[in-house]
Design brief:
The protein is α/β, with parallel strands linked by helices. The chain is built from 7 helices and 9 strands. Helix 6 packs across helix 7 (about 225-235).
Length: about 240
């Protein structure tokens, strides 16, 4: 997977060069290339934004500098994602779908955004990380890179994405590690039993309970067994 990021603030991407994503880059599992849109300004003062036709507060990024930066990284396999509050809100299903792409070009807005003509010309898909407005698309771009990279073979240990929140459409069960007793609270006995079938049943029940209390709407899409339905009813 190759990520090309188009941004005015390359230095904001230092955080994704750490930890798991940093190691994935070192192991050539993913490639992250950052392009500074400002490098494509033909203005002697490196101007990249301007006031908005028709009036309005703030500045807009000019279409020509964005287009030229896009042309410098495009390939016949690239899919262009524009991080924007107008996009469809990112979910695990979309993350998994995008992880199958070969080349993602991620365009980061800033200030008031980007001239609509270049968005119409180059953007394949607008994606939002939530219904709120940020100062820039750089943090959303890092969220996208982090979440998509987790699905690239070799980035995480085998099976890591199989039993986690949203992998089966519901939240994950509670998890515990040593010490066995923390502040008088013990690890649930079943998890120390070594009885895999009982552990699996306990975890499914706890995942349903977690989801019922924290994100009940997710249960509406679940195909529950009669026993699971009765358990959920018992929580009400
Ligand atoms: C955003 C979001 C977001 C809007 C104006 C950048 C900002 C500025 N991006 N999900 N929510 N972007 O607020 O992705 O250009």
């Amino acid at each position: 997977m190759k990520f090309d990021i188009l941004t005015l603030f390359p230095e904001m991407f230092e955080p994704i060069k750490q930890s798991i994503i940093g190691r994935a880059v070192e192991n050539n599992l993913i490639d992250i290339n950052i392009t500074n849109i400002r490098d494509f300004s033909k203005d002697k003062h490196k101007k990249v934004d301007d006031t908005i036709y028709g009036g309005g507060a703030g500045m807009l990024i000019k279409p020509d500098v964005v287009y030229d930066s896009f042309c410098s990284v495009r390939s016949d396999k690239s899919k262009v994602i524009y991080m924007s509050p107008q996009g469809k809100v990112l979910c695990q299903e979309k993350v998994e779908e995008l992880s199958k792409e070969e080349h993602l070009i991620i365009l980061c807005g800033h200030y008031e955004g980007i001239d609509n003509r270049v968005l119409d010309k180059i953007v394949d898909e607008e994606i939002s990380i939530g219904d709120y407005v940020l100062t820039g698309g750089e943090i959303p771009a890092m969220v996208l890179i982090d979440s998509v990279s987790r699905y690239i073979d070799g980035v995480l240990s085998n099976g890591s994405t199989e039993e986690e929140s949203f992998s089966k459409g519901i939240l994950e069960y509670p998890q515990y590690t040593r010490p066995e007793i923390f502040e008088g609270m013990e690890v649930p006995e079943v998890l120390k039993s070594g009885h895999h079938e009982n552990i699996k049943k306990w975890r499914r029940k706890e995942a349903l309970k977690n989801t019922f209390y924290k994100r009940p709407e997710l249960l509406e899409k679940q195909d529950l067994t009669e026993e699971e339905r009765k358990y959920i009813e018992s929580l009400k």
